[in-house]
Input
Amino acid sequence: MGVGTGVLVIGGGPAGLAAALAARKKGFDVTVADGAKPPIDKACGEGLMPGTVTALRELGVAIGPGDGQAFRGIRFLDAGTSAEASFSGVSGVGVRRTVLHQKMVERAEGCGITLLWNTPVAGLSGDSAILGGTVVKSRWIIGADGIHSRVRRWIGLDGNVRQEMRFAQRRHYRVKAWTDCMEIHWGQKAQAYVTPLSNEETCVALISRDPRMRLEEAWREFPKLAGRLCRAEPRSAERGAVTVSRRLGQVYRG
Ligand SMILES: Cc1cc2nc3c(=O)[nH]c(=O)nc-3n(C[C@H](O)[C@H](O)[C@H](O)COP(=O)(O)OP(=O)(O)OC[C@H]3O[C@@H](n4cnc5c(N)ncnc54)[C@H](O)[C@@H]3O)c2cc1C
Output
């Protein structure tokens, strides 16, 4: 069976939905295909920087006071030092990943974007993509299928890439917010991103080169953080992710 669309976005995470909303705003007929279905979660620090908040607003995705917690800047801390800076103008917002995704999905539905969940894209063929048993012809195809993108591989952009692998764990804790900044705690073997999500909930994302590092074992790296969190009630299970920093051979613009 063959069908068509103006813009096909492969991947309905934040990047794919943002691209879909931007294309729809320009008047394109847009379809998003994602192999998963909402609520789509991912290990993440859950801190939206001011530029992201502004970009979302321009796309019609309003993050309201009930959705998350505003923070005024970034603070870096290690055992003995701390340095911080405030944003000028718009604040950042800490918001659960699933809440952000839901808001973006609602906006996409409201704009008339076709959303195909549980629909993995299996390959590309000329100006078409293969979605299950369906070949979808599209004038534009956007690959937004995440850090381990297969689209990038299919179109030959994976060559000569240098990458550095890191391992992340994320968990939410019930704890009274103690900071009006997003905090990045610097340890010997790991960093912890701490984001207030509400007056009583904080997100902690640990990132390390050690695949065996787990949040509860990492407290000795972060004595200040341990003092605040080691007795706090966890509000979600630990969620892991493998992430890579990539250095691409070339970046194309225009
Ligand atoms: C530990 C950690 C902390 C972070 N903290 C922050 C932070 O505080 N603030 C911030 O802004 N960013 C943060 N990031 C980065 C942020 O998480 C990513 O930039 C963001 O998730 C990228 O979104 P995406 O839509 O590109 O990818 P993803 O969210 O990975 O979405 C990709 C989507 O593509 C779908 N997909 C994949 N393959 C296919 C296929 N073949 N067919 C169909 N669908 C497919 C997947 O199901 C998925 O839904 C953090 C990252 C990590 C690892």
